[in-house]
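Below is a filled-in request sheet from our internal design queue. Each sheet records the structural input a requester submitted and the sequence that came back. We keep these sheets so that new team members can see what a complete request looks like end to end.

REQUESTER: design group, bay 2
PRIORITY: normal
MODE: inverse folding
CHAIN LENGTH: 306
BACKBONE (tokenized):
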């Protein structure tokens, strides 16, 4: 209390001396300079730097923005052509997206994108100052990603988070590309897989049981109606003592005939073609349901499904 009274007394004395000596006029002339101090630029709240009880890492002109905490999606190499008190726009950026278990070339994708920030708001509390609440990522093909920064409060707990993206309005208006299923059935929603296994056909020459696999696949195109890739086909031929001898050959693969299961679009037809020892072999597979003890598998058209 004594410290508080001393501070008040000193403040009152300073006002009195100011009135007597004319310092108040000088202060008045200095106030416009103080008012002209530039307002702080809005920040972009990013992942990292937070404890969960406060908003995440505030940054101005960051070079990387993490869309997901596990690193499966992010915008990197950001250079900002504009960053003012209302909007911010990148001149160059790359969106990284992982669609598989990590980490092969087939499940990692890169897109040249533009990032636009807007919707500036201010807040008090532990982190005062302006911040962007809307983010639009364009230039990645069929989808435009839209995110909104939302604040959640529960008692003294305050958490901020970016919501939207693939679940947003733009994603809903543009359907996702079809997926392809592996031998494990409907629970394998794959995009540009590097491996498709346990396929069965009589096409591979002298194959044991007709089983074969497709591996080291690369997909130059993956569209809404078809996908085209290349890689290797592997099968086993009879060997000495009944053992299988592994064989491999370059192969071209085409996926087509889009169907729907559980609201998800998928390729139901697989065609492959390869050359082995001067002979060209081609075959077609269809994804059937049910298939044996699984809930879907690839079979040669015309083969009875049990």
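RETURNED SEQUENCE:
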């Amino acid at each position: 209390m004594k410290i508080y009274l001393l501070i008040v007394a000193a403040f009152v004395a300073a006002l009195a001396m100011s009135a007597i000596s004319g310092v108040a006029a000088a202060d008045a002339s200095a106030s416009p300079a103080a008012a002209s101090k530039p307002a702080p630029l809005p920040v972009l709240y990013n992942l990292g730097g937070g404890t969960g009880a406060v908003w995440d890492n505030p940054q101005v002109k960051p070079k990387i923005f993490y869309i997901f905490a596990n690193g499966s999606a992010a915008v990197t190499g950001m250079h900002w052509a504009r960053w003012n008190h209302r909007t911010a726009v990148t001149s160059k950026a790359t969106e990284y997206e992982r669609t598989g278990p990590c980490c092969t070339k087939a499940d990692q994708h890169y897109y040249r994108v533009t990032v636009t920030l807007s919707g500036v708001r201010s807040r008090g509390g532990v982190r005062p100052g302006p911040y962007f609440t809307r983010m639009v990522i364009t230039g990645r093909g069929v989808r435009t990603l839209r995110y909104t920064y939302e604040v959640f409060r529960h008692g003294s707990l305050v958490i901020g988070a970016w919501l939207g993206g693939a679940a947003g309005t733009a994603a809903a208006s543009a359907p996702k590309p079809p997926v392809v299923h592996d031998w494990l059935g409907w629970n394998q929603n794959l995009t540009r897989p590097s491996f498709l296994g346990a396929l069965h056909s009589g096409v591979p020459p002298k194959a044991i049981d007709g089983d074969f696999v497709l591996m080291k696949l690369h997909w130059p195109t993956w569209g809404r109606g078809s996908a085209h890739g290349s890689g290797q086909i592997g099968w086993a031929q009879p060997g000495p003592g009944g053992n299988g001898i592994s064989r491999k050959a370059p192969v071209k693969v085409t996926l087509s005939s889009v169907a729907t299961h559980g609201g998800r679009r998928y390729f139901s037809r697989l065609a492959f073609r390869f050359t082995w020892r001067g002979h060209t072999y081609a075959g077609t597979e269809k994804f059937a349901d049910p298939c044996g003890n699984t809930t879907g598998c690839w079979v040669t058209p015309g083969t009875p499904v049990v």
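SHEET NOTES:
- The longest strand covers residues 244-261.
- The chain has two domains: 44-173, 180-299.
FILED BY: M.R.
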